[in-house]
Write a structure and sequence with these properties.
heterodimer; A: 305 residues; alpha/beta; Rossmann fold; Alpha-Beta Plaits; six-stranded mixed beta sheet; four-stranded antiparallel beta sheet; 11 helices; elongated; B: 279 residues; mainly alpha
């Protein structure tokens, strides 16, 4: 499973006087559930649109399953996607719309339609016209379309928009199951961080068209994990005490007046006593940790997400 | 490509608008056959077609000026006969308005509903998408054109009798000659569909286009005084003229003008579409 499903190198999209995506690098390995995190207008959709060919690339390149250029376009038959809002023919039924795409993709077994509709719990609405569907149902149909021809890579842009909590939970389970059982790689964008965190194993944080960080779930957990924060005026001395007296290396100097210890074996009272005994004057000592939202807000510069 | 054509055919016949379009075409054909006098949309006429209508008016006595439609029909039926089928073929430019239905369903509805992105995000390239749509609308519109010409021919014989019809070889010859301007019509509409993409914009541009174009031509002619003969190469005028007995040279020149329009329209619109942002 070490094959690269999708890789971008310096992918850039410029419109007149506006850079929507600036030199984006990302690597999605086969089997990943890859989360694209970013605010509205961060560049997530632009990145996805360039990969699936809905907008032209200004500069940079991308590879799909190791293939670049024209060969990458040919590999697009292995991609299923839902970009922006689900869009289908309003006067045609759910079944009719999917049958149209089955014919277009050369799928002769129309049982596949029932299969994907069951996956997204939309079988009962098969005879309904698209324009009569609720937002959540349209979203489900979009996901059903993305899964129609057994893709190896599924790209979903804000797939949980308009879904009710039960629907979100069901879809999350569906994504996990398809990933586990069929080995489908997912690239999912969302600005609902908690939902993305619940399903993805790797993340790309993007803001104002620039990639801020690419990280695994473990790395994100570490960044957000609970710790003991010590506020004092001599962090160098404190660092020496932590390393030499406590034999702890899992700590981080946050600023010239704050140090954070992630080692869960360290107790605040013991630490405080040790600091005082070794002549380090502690102003504050407390247990802390940050939420993913706080972490994201910190990365993008404190503005509200 | 074949799958795309099949899928579009499946969708076309699922749409009510296509049946309305076909019904309107049959209605125009039926009314022309019953009235024994086809109606025009537009303003261009040609001397060749005038000859055809003169043939008709000479057959019908002038005392019947105030007669009812059925009275006129009776008078025409009791006359010595004239080439009604060729007169009807001379107004085939009316098909332009029927083609709008087909092109709107096959192309602009894809963009208006944003469903085009579903196709274009799959392995189908923009080039293949464009070519497939062009082939589809051409096949379907030409099919309608053939149904219109030969359907009219047989209905005319059934309802009005053989003295009002030409030989089928004449109809086939006219059909063949008219094919180029018909293909040019299709190319203009297809190009507008790919450039404008939105149904409302497309309809706004394409519906008055024929009339506006004729007005502009007439204005340019009046202002610059270019030869009146050039007006015969306007598409609607060409369709009319080809139903009469045009000279061989005119048919060749007209077909070359049509070919130039077709190539230009497809090259321009394909280039434009390949660079477009798909919503």
């Amino acid at each position: 499973m070490n094959e690269t499903a999708l890789q971008t190198k310096g992918l850039t999209k410029r419109y007149r006087g506006f850079t929507a995506l600036d030199s984006a690098d990302m690597t999605v390995m086969r089997g990943d559930i890859y989360g694209l995190i970013g605010r509205n207008g961060a560049g997530k959709t632009t990145l996805m649109k360039m990969v699936v060919g809905l907008t032209n690339v200004t500069s940079g390149e991308f590879s799909v399953f190791g293939k670049t250029g024209r060969q990458a376009s040919a590999e697009k038959c292995r991609i299923g996607c839902l970009i922006e809002n689900p869009a289908f023919f309003g006067s045609m039924t759910v079944y009719g719309n999917l049958k149209y795409y089955c014919i277009q993709k050369g799928i002769s077994d129309f049982k596949k339609i029932d299969e994907v509709l069951s996956l997204v719990s939309l079988k009962d609405a098969a005879g309904k016209r698209f324009k009569k569907l609720s937002l959540g149902m349209k979203q489900r149909l979009g996901i059903a379309f993305a899964l129609l021809d057994d893709p190896d890579l599924v790209i979903l842009d804000e797939p949980i928009n308009g879904l009710d909590p039960i629907g979100i939970s069901e879809l999350r389970d569906t994504f996990r199951r398809l990933n586990r059982e069929k080995g489908i790689t997912f690239v999912i964008s969302s600005h609902i961080l908690s939902e993305l965190y619940a399903v993805a194993n790797r993340f790309l944080i993007i803001d104002k068209g620039r990639v801020l960080k690419e990280m695994t779930k473990e790395q994100l957990d570490l960044e957000c994990s609970r710790c003991i924060a010590v506020k004092l005026n001599d962090v160098k001395k404190a660092a020496v005490i932590i390393e030499n007296k406590l034999n702890v290396t899992d700590y981080k100097v946050i600023s010239d007046s704050e140090i954070r210890i992630y080692d869960r074996s360290v107790k605040p009272d013991v630490l405080n006593k040790l600091m005082v005994e070794n002549g380090a004057s502690v102003d504050q000592i407390f247990e802390t940790g940050i939420t993913i939202e706080d972490y994201f807000r910190g990365l993008v510069g404190g503005e509200q997400s | 490509m074949i799958n795309m054509l099949r899928a579009d055919a499946y969708r076309l016949f699922k749409t009510t608008a296509v049946y309305i379009g076909i019904f309107l075409m049959l209605l125009m054909m039926g009314v022309s056959i019953y009235e024994m006098s086809p109606g025009y949309i537009g303003s261009v006429d040609t001397s060749e077609v005038d000859e055809l209508t003169e043939e008709q008016t000479s057959c019908i006595t002038t005392e019947l000026e105030d007669a009812t439609l059925s009275g006129l029909r009776e008078a025409a039926l009791s006359s010595g006969g004239f080439a009604l089928d060729r007169q009807i073929l001379a107004v085939n430019a009316n098909l332009y308005y029927i083609f709008i239905f087909i092109i709107a369903i096959a192309i602009t509805s894809d963009f208006s509903s944003n469903a085009a992105k579903n196709t274009l995000s799959s392995a189908i390239s923009r080039g293949r998408y464009f070519v497939s749509k062009v082939i589809f609308v051409n096949i379907f519109c030409v099919l309608l054109f053939l149904i219109n010409n030969f359907g009219m021919y047989f209905l005319n014989i059934i309802f009005n009798g053989s003295k009002f019809s030409s030989d089928i070889s004449v109809i086939a010859k006219i059909t063949l000659m008219q094919l180029m301007p018909i293909l040019a019509f299709i190319s203009i509409q297809t190009a507008l569909a790919f450039i404008l993409r939105r149904a409302a914009l497309f309809n706004t541009a394409v519906i008055p286009l024929l009339m506006v174009f004729q007005l502009v031509l007439a204005f340019v002619q009046a202002m610059t005084g270019f030869k009146e003969g050039y007006m015969r190469y306007e598409l609607q005028a060409m369709i009319s003229s080809f139903a009469a007995e045009p000279s061989r040279q005119f048919v060749i020149n007209g077909s070359l003008v049509c070919l130039a329009i077709i190539v230009l329209c497809y090259l321009l619109s394909c280039g434009f579409f390949k660079k477009a942002e798909i919503k």
